[in-house]
Every structure is written in structure tokens, then in C-alpha cells.
Protein: Single-stranded DNA-binding protein
Amino acid sequence: MNSLRNSVRLVGNLGMDPEVKNFDNNKQLVKFSLATNETYKNDKGERVTETQWHNLIAWGSQAKFIGDYLKKGDEVAIEGKLTNKNWVDKDGNKRYMTEVVVNDFIKLKG
Amino acid sequence: MNSLRNSVRLVGNLGMDPEVKNFDNNKQLVKFSLATNETYKNDKGERVTETQWHNLIAWGSQAKFIGDYLKKGDEVAIEGKLTNKNWVDKDGNKRYMTEVVVNDFIKLKG
Amino acid sequence: MNSLRNSVRLVGNLGMDPEVKNFDNNKQLVKFSLATNETYKNDKGERVTETQWHNLIAWGSQAKFIGDYLKKGDEVAIEGKLTNKNWVDKDGNKRYMTEVVVNDFIKLKG
Amino acid sequence: MNSLRNSVRLVGNLGMDPEVKNFDNNKQLVKFSLATNETYKNDKGERVTETQWHNLIAWGSQAKFIGDYLKKGDEVAIEGKLTNKNWVDKDGNKRYMTEVVVNDFIKLKG
DNA sequence: TTTT
DNA sequence: TTTT
Structure:
């Protein structure tokens, strides 16, 4: 009852090598950024590319697999879940961050 | 070539009545928050609900339609695009915000 | 590596009560038909509804859950996999059938 | 209100060069088959690949673009709509066929 | 064979 | 700030 309620699908390129973190409880986390490019023609008929950068993370065996297998520049398709976290920073400002938690991926090129 | 590269699908409830803004150029923008609820059993076998709050916006005729038709509490399915904007706030801190730009929706209940 | 390669999402109404079959090996299968309705305006500006009927099946605990919980007329969202089977019928004609194997569903109304 | 109610996403390889048909009213139709491969480990721990063959069609500018741009063997991601048609054949048997009407595609490799 |  |  999960991926029907909250599902993100992206096709794009890694902006960095994935960063793997190992925790004491043998859990693994991987983080990386992904760029998606949308191209369209503007009012003047010029071809324009608009890029979105997304924060992606993955846990467990998916994290290990991503860390071993993907690198900067690779093109991937991913399916994940949209999550938001918020906290108060050292200056007392409320901060927000959105992350896509990756459930599955396919390496396409690179 | 767009929704294959960047697509978000959510089923959830509006946390507020949509806020419509009218711009000088006759363009309309609507903003609202949407809660998606995921339920699962934790280690102790207890039923737990985890809620994510998402920022949604829509433009044009979609904005007008949402403003006229949806209200706080309604359950909807939406399809949209994941976008990130960043700016420097008055204290010089870099700030980020993620929004889902709604392309299409279905009202389910409420 | 599965739902990224082959994924169907439908929102529609059950045309029948689900039919549950129990196999000797304790496996369960459920079958039902689902109608999806698309409405649009034709050349004359008339509102037209076009209906597609889909064959859906599910296995295991999902089958049991569907058999217990859903009935004719209910509106559901489903996620599944597109499968094709073919065989030769009693007259020697090659026959085809497409089924959506349901992985997950949400009951919306009804 | 369309792709939320009926949406198919496939990543796979073309089994043939697309066949383009031109109609009198300047409309174009393209047909091709697409194989999706799912790999998993069976009871004996052996890696197994299961292939599904899908019938795909597209209309209009999408048809022309596919005919010009894709060929047998290419890997593509597609988004489309699941449609079913049925008719009575020359022997009086009721026949069914399922087609995915392509709305959008990305060429991945090949 | 569904639903609005 | 929603809903079950």
C-alpha cells in the first residue's frame, strides 16, 4: 500500500560518485545527487534545457549495490519515495530538506 | 519527453484549502499542502502511521480548477513534476525548497 | 529491478465480484475485470466517455485480500505488471490474452 | 484526467523495426513489438529471465518520430495507455487484442 | 461487466 | 496542516 501513495520516477545523470556511510548496526546509507533535464522550445523558438537537481538516498542492500555499481555521470532510471525532513539549525532557523528514498534503479548508460 | 524523466504520483489529503494567486498577466498559481500516509507494523507488531507533508503548486487552468474544486481534507490522486528552487535568505543563508508542480489530479473522496 | 521495467497503474471500477480459486498447493488466485473511463470532448464539443475493460489477476496474500475486501462496483487504484500469454485453442487457432498481475491496490470508494 | 487513470510504463527492447502506415487523411500509425525482461532467482538459486512481448502503437507526430528514430534492438522507455480491442474473426470466434498506445518515449541505447 |  |  506504499508505492501507490507516494512514488517518484526519475531518469537522469549522477552529479557525483555516491557517498556510502556505514553505521554501527551494520546498516548502510548512500547519498547522491541526480540531474534531470527537460528540454523545450521557448517563445523565440529556441531549444532550452532546464535542469533539476534532486537529493537521493538509499538504505541497506540497495545502498551497497548503488555504491558498488554507479558513479558520477551514469544515466539511471530510479523509482522511490518522496520524503521531507525538517529541523532547526544552529541559528534557530527552521530548515527543510526533501530527499527521494530509492527503492529500485536501472543503470542505462555510462 | 517530460513525464518519463521526472514524475511524481501521490495519493493523499489536502492539509488546507488551496491558496490561489492571480498575477497581472492573467496567470494563476495555486498552492496547497498534501499529506501522504504510510502505515506499517513496527518491531513490536504495532500499527504505525508515518506522514509526509508535500508542497504542491499548479499553474493556469489547472490552478483555477484546483482552487474551485478542492478543499481542506479532500483525498486526491495527483501526477506532477519534482522541482527544486533555492535562494539566499535575508540572513545570507542558502535556502532550498522542493515543490511538486501538479499536471493532473483526480478527486477521490471528501 | 522489476516495476521500473514493467508497470501498469489503473484507476477504475470492478465490473464483477472477484473470483477466487484455491489450488492444491495452498496457493490462491483471484480474477476480476476493471473498467477505466476516459472522458473527453469530441469534434462537436460533446462530452464522450470511452471505457477500457482490463483483465486483472492476483496471487497469494494479495489474492486473499482482494477476494475478502473488494466487490463489484468498487473504485480502486492498482499497480501491477503487464503479462501476455498465448496458446492454441481447440480449433488450432493461436490465441492471446493479456492480464495485469496486481502487486498493490488501494480501495477508493464503494 | 487521463494518465492518472490508465498508465503503462515499460523499459525494453524493440523486437522489430517499427512499421509505419500512412492513411488518406494524413494520419500516421506506427506499430512495433517490445520485449521486457524480468530476471529473478528460481527455487534452485538459478538466475532466470522471463520475457514479455508487448504490442505497441502510436499515432500522429509520435508515430512519425518513432518511425524515423527507432529500429530493431533499440532499448527504450515508454509511457502509454493500455487499450483492448475485440472483434469476431472469419471463423466466428471472438478475438481480443491488447495494445499499448505510446504517449511518450526515451531512447536509451542502441 | 463498472462508474460519473 | 490531512486522513483512516
Q: What stands out?
A: Strands of chain B lie at 6-14, 19-22, 28-41, 47-59, 75-88, 94-109. The longest strand of chain B covers residues 94-109. Chain B has one domain: 2-109.
